[in-house]
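Attaching the record inline, Q. Sequence:
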Amino acid sequence: MSAANSFKFVMLPPQTETTRSWARELAAAVPQARIVVAEDAATAESEIVDADAAFGWLGKDLLAKAKRLRWLQAPQAAPAAGYYYPELIAHDLTVTNFREIFNDHIGAHILSFVLAFARGLHVYIPQQLRREWKKPAEDLGVVHLPEATALIVGVGGIGAEAARLLSAFGVTVLATDARRGAPPAGVAELHPPEALDTLLPRADFVILTVPHTPATEGFFNRARFQAMKPSAFFINIGRGMTTRLDDLVAALNANEIAGAALDVYEIEPLPAEHPLWTMQNVLLTPHMAGYGPYLNNRRFQIVVDNCKAFAEGKALRNPVDKSSWF
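Structure, as predicted:
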């Protein structure tokens, strides 16, 4: 590879043993890359000036010092609000992220929530803790999945995997998505995001997988809960800021929906006094739906692939629409 293909790649602080290990492995895997590990802000400020690429959180002060920067690898699939600020959005550099690495883990988590509600585990687990033997009539308390409809709001990689799993249980899957032009396997109907309100009354399970963006912040509100079936269940494993928790509590208290399962929250950690903790028809997990093996290996492989592509002038994996944050 000619010297013209070499580039400087700065690992921005803070550093961890993982990022330091990645730097060593990257240097061996991509000899065209000169890897610089910036352990502190002062080093980052001096090294970013002539960097071609960087990894991590790049504040506006650092961006202003960067003279050659053309690629920024975000350290998450969907960084928290503030990562994409106006100056970064306006800059001509390309941002890439870590989307797609959680598809199997989060898809399984979604399915576990659906199956738990379909078989009444939100009722029976509290009964178990009370040592209470109580059964409904045999035709009550169950959602028959081959007759059920799920609406997946945001059918990217995670949503598509959830659709595949749900369809295997006979569930009819509807979906909305801002980017897909054709439905992925398992999706019976694909609609634009603008169709959401017309689809809500059809669904027995409403599943949010969308990221937090300017368009999705707080978009699941009381009116949308009221548009759902009273027998329907709400599931959010996307981002907490998409859903107004006060509106969800109000909808549950008014019996406007049958239950909710959440892995993400407007406020994290969810305060101990929050009413969701004690509602029988609610299932909560502590923002860990993506947990599972191989995640760091998957993250690192994206960095390696993108470093190689950058050196060769090829398309990068997982480019981001910066104005939409994903």
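The radius of gyration is 22 Å. The domain at 3-100+293-312 is CATH 3.40.50.720 (Rossmann fold).

More tomorrow.
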